[in-house]
Amino acid sequence: MGKAFSIPFVAFFGRNYQEYLAMFSLDESSLRGRSILDCPSGPDSFIADGTERELNVIGCDPMYAMSIEQLLKSGKEHIDECFAQIEQTPGNFDIRDMEKFRKDKYDALASFSKDFLRGKGVRYIDASLPDLPFADRSFDLVLSSHFLFCYASVENGGMMQGNMFDLDFHLKGITELARVTRSELRMTPTHSMQAPPQRHSYLDASTKHLESLGFAVTIEPSDYDDGFAPFVEILVGRR
Ligand SMILES: C[S@@+](CC[C@H](N)C(=O)[O-])C[C@H]1O[C@@H](n2cnc3c(N)ncnc32)[C@H](O)[C@@H]1O
Fold this sequence. Notes:
There is one protein chain. By secondary structure, this protein is of the alpha/beta class. The protein has one domain: Rossmann fold, CATH 3.40.50.150. Helices cover 35% and strands 16% of the residues. A seven-stranded mixed β-sheet has the order 3-2-1-4-5-7-6, with helices on both faces. The longest helix has 22 residues. The site of S-adenosylmethionine has 18 residues, from loops.
């Protein structure tokens, strides 16, 4: 087993639209006519490209309090820092095509940054878990990727140095995501971020918690496959 990948902050690092659909096993037609929240959305391009395709999408992230210049600067720095870390931890991230993976992140940041000022305060909302500024059951579909589970501490299967996002934080965050969900909540990753990946140590407690909030929970295959095992499944909660 290689050295564990770990970072001391939550990266402003985002996937592109196609990665989003694949990751959450969604096709565009299934999104039409539904109100969708992406939390956190960071610099992903799901909101920008979804809006262009006339989907009803809103993203939230605490970084949206910052200026576009600061977001672009952080976005580039965090991508570079993540890839530098990946290079220093061989054997941990077995991504098949690293150049494409990196390019997809830069493309997502570019689409996000073109749309951000047009949608600031409308479809880009400055907000953080576990307190979202939305009414109960506001969204038909809530998507949540690469924050919960991912940023648990390294010891608990995430990649964060430090334990600020412990199990208690996760359960509060999930309670809040559930509160704003009208019918369906999808979350990823479900696996630990270290090699060899295994189901995340918070997954069982999170599943039971969502069930106690009235959701039927299943772990389903993800269509996304870049060779990195933690992304093979998603958690789906349905009311
Ligand atoms: C790696 S990005 C995920 C972006 C996107 N969901 C994706 O998968 O491409 C993680 C994001 O979590 C955000 N974040 C940090 N603390 C948060 C909190 N308490 N609640 C919600 N989001 C938070 C960061 O600002 C960052 O943009």
